[in-house]
Amino acid sequence: FPSEKIRNFSIIAHIDHGKSTLADRLMELTGTIKKGHGQPQYLDKLQVERERGITVKAQTATMFYENKVEDQEASGYLLNLIDTPGHVDFSYEVSRSLSACQGALLVVDAAQGVQAQTVANFYLAFEANLTIVPVINKIDQPTADPERVKAQLKSMFDLNTDDVLLVSAKTGLGLEHVLPAVIERIPPPPGISDSPLRMLLFDSFFNEYKGVICYVSVVDGMLSKGDKVSFAASGQSYEVLDVGIMHPELTSTGVLLTGQVGYIVTGMRTTKEARIGDTIYRTKTTVEPLPGFKPVRHMVFSGVYPADGSDFEALSHAIEKLTCNDASVSVAKETSTALGMGFRCGFLGLLHMDVFHQRLEQEYGTQVISTIPTVPYTFEYSDGSKLQVQNPAALPSNPKYRVTASWEPTVIATIILPSEYVGAVINLCSDRRGYASFDYEDAEYQASDLVKLDILLNGQAVDALATIVHKQKAYRVGKELVEKLKNYIERQMFEVMIQAAIGSKIIARDTISAMRKNVLAKCYGGDITRKKKLLEKQKEGKKRMKRVGSVDIPHEAFQQILKVS
Ligand code: GTP
Predict the structure, then answer these.
(1) Pairing of the two strands 496-502 and 505-512
(2) Closest Cα to atom 2, ligand 1: which residue?
(3) Residues 128-156: tens digit of each pLDDT
(4) Mutate which of 10, 20, 140 for ligand 1 pocket (most atoms within 8 A of beta carbon)
(5) Cβ neighbours for 299, distance < 8 A, ≥ 6 positions apart
(6) What's the 44 CA to ligand 1 centre distance in angstroms?
(7) Average pLDDT over residues 404-422
(8) How far apart are CA 130 and CA 116, in angstroms?
(9) Among 141-150, 153-162, 265-274, 329-338, whose mean pLDDT is lowest?
């Protein structure tokens, strides 16, 4: 395929507007997957994606298509479709995928119209200089109002109303116009075929058998199996052991030509060597590296610990594998006195964090305890020093120098909603359950009055329960945390004192009185089976406990506590 017969495009949309369904239909239309293959949202491979009905990880599929224009011979095209996630937490995946494309189908729900992520994704595509093909989907719905949505697309993005395609990915209505529009309107990839090889590494994942699989877009030149390639940022060189396309399963082709999107296998064992955004070139040639990507900014940090202390190695292995498939998580080892050895992970947002935990459990069978998520804060002390904090436990409770200032990150939020709801917007924002859709971008750090809130059990601070809060909220949060913990910690053989403290000042306290009876009190020594059963039961209960000093804390307490504040 010469590059003028190649089109690389993406589908971008707000969450649930039908990207994955449309991708399925296009793959069926081109015979890439069989019709009625019984697995809707084909590219949503992860269990978490199927359960939540959302796309988390961008996927890619190569399709072959015979385009027939009136009176002319049909002509074969190679189309690379890159499916992208819709949720705001995963914009990073979107911008990465777009860098391998020249155009994008902007899918908008015919009833809901333009939503926050439609706007955000439109601008990502626009800034990447992509040709936009507007598609209004779900026109089969009774509440569909394509004319209103067309007008929105015109007024918000200056898109020509005549260019808008009207489709139903569900019934198939209008779908025959989509691929011809892709071919006609989206330019072929601009690379130079007789220039030295230059490829962009835009994604990677780990395969048990093949090792690291790198998704690449060939910008210039061509690549064959057996070639020696070097990675510009990592400085490593490898032999290409396998090369091919995603059709949509990995399919060896032996070569990749200018403008193609495909995969390479090099025998790399860890994705640390595969830096997303890196330029790959033929060893011993000199090329100008490609611009690459903006570094990820982590908005939320949380500790991830094995639920059973002895499982650290298994967790470590699982996290390494999973970060191979999700390069947007940052991982650093940390130790907690309460929870033992674990990791501090940085995420793009709370949904991203949730999905990461779920994948750890579902794909790697590890049970984890996660600590209260926190945003990164900055503190300044009277000696002029500054401390960046991603873990509340790392902030000294009684510092040597006085805290003179503290800062927290903020975002610029865009909320798009029908005008009649404007009056209620404040409430919608505060409970996050409203009709409005939400988008945000990073803004600067702002000065804010922050304090560390410690939780003490019988006088001992539990590092995993420490939080950083606004001073004016500290008393309320402290009181709520103490109350919650009281409900979660069962009575022990001795009295348990629960305190919340800011530095050495106790701001809330409560006690759990000692247990009087023990579990065996009722078995007068005679019935040994019953005694055993009771002891077993008690042991089972203990398994899900974490012992802090002499106090047993149930695992769920660590998770439930974060619902306060
Ligand atoms: P994310 O991947 O989470 O961003 O969602 P998505 O945009 O890929 O949406 P998806 O394809 O998962 O579709 C969301 C829902 O809309 C599913 O229940 C689909 O069955 C439904 N849907 C998709 N296209 C149509 C359509 O043309 N008509 C109707 N009525 N429903 C549709």
Answers:
(1) antiparallel
(2) 55
(3) 889 999 999 999 999 999 999 999 999 88
(4) 20
(5) 347, 348, 349, 375, 409, 411, 442
(6) 12
(7) 77
(8) 19
(9) 265-274
**Measured from the CA of 24, which atom of ligand 1 is nearest?**
11
Nearest CA among 261, 274, 207, 305 for reference residue 3: 261
Which of the four pLDDT bands, split at 50, 70 and 90, describes residue 543?
Answer: very low
pLDDT surpasses 50 at 433: no
pLDDT over threshold 50, residue 541? no
pLDDT at 388: 87
Instruction: Verify cis geometry, omega within 30 degrees of 0, for the bond prior to 190.
Output: no
ipTM summary value: 0.97
Coil, helix or strand at residue 420? helix
Q: Are 245 and 296 in contact (CB under 8 A)?
A: no
Ligand 1 site residues (CB inside 6 A) read 13, 15-21, 41, 53-55, 85-86, 137-138, 140-141, 168-170
Higher pLDDT, 431 or 213: 213
CB 410 within 8 A of CB 440: no
Write out 22-51 in H/E/C secondary structure: HHHHHHHHCCCCCCCCCCCCCCCCCHHHHH
Sorting pLDDT into bands at 50, 70 and 90, what band is 363? confident
DSSP 352-381: HHHHHHHHHHHHH---EEEPPPB--EEEEE
Are 375 and 301 in contact by the 8 Å Cβ rule? The answer is: yes
Residue type, 212: V
Single pTM value for the model: 0.67
- CA of 158 from ligand 1 middle (Å) equals 25
pLDDT per residue as tens digits for the range 155-190? 889 899 999 999 999 999 999 999 999 999 999 998
Residue 238: which residues within 8 A CB-CB, separation 6 or more?
A: 228, 229, 230, 231, 266, 267, 268
Neighbour count for residue 142 (Cβ, 10 Å): 5
* Best residue among 10, 11, 14, 16 to mutate for probing ligand 1, ranked by most atoms within 8 Å of CB: 16
Task: Write out the two tokens for 92.
Answer: 């990073």
DSSP run (H or E) holding 109: strand 103-109
pLDDT value at position 563?
56
- For 328-356, b/e burial (b = at least 16 CB within 10 A) is bbbeeebebebbbebbbbbbbbebbbbbb
Structure tokens at 290: 């490609």
Distance from Cα 133 to the centre of ligand 1, integer Å: 18
Strand, helix or coil for residue 125: helix
